[in-house]
Amino acid sequence: MAASRYTSILLFGVPGSGKGTQGAMLGRIPGFVHVAMGDVFRSLDRASELGRKFLEYSTKGELVPDDLTLEIWRSHVEQLVADGRFRPNAEFLLLDGIPRSSAQAKSLAPFVEVTLVLHLEAQDLEQFVDRMRRRALQQKRPDDADEKVIRRRFEVYRATTEPVLRAFDPKLVRSIEASGTPARVLLSILEEVAPLQERRFPNPLG
Q: Which of 33, 108, 144, 206 has CB 3.0 to 4.6 Å from 86, enough for a Cys bridge?
């Protein structure tokens, strides 16, 4: 484990906000390393100890406990450092999908220094409902196109995410309107992160 905490930016987003797309694009910019917990879980070696622990829950359709999530996250990030894919003294760790609860936020605190929280929000909920319905039909997932299910996902997101956001200093939280084109949303994100990068890690390629 690193002697100091990892300098981090957290990414939250309402369903259909394009959070994964934005995280991936930002992660391709020098100075930002994108870690999406969903991808981390899927990349686990099922024969490893952590992989077996994960399967104990995932195969039953159960949520992975907070302590195991943190253990898997730490192992992944430490491997990134060991492989040279993440340089803690020159790059931001962009976290996507963690923390998912107030308990996770508290457990994560000794390991990360949160410098910014980006929250992709929807001012026009109906636009996002329509976006998610069309996406489900395009991906041939008609069950996910049910409007009641979509609206329920928004309710669950608000109920579970707002307490997590309250765990952080409000001065660190930035709301990003996510209804524009991916390029426009990315521009809004860069307007927030670029000045921070210039102050903290001005030479990401050095």
A: 33
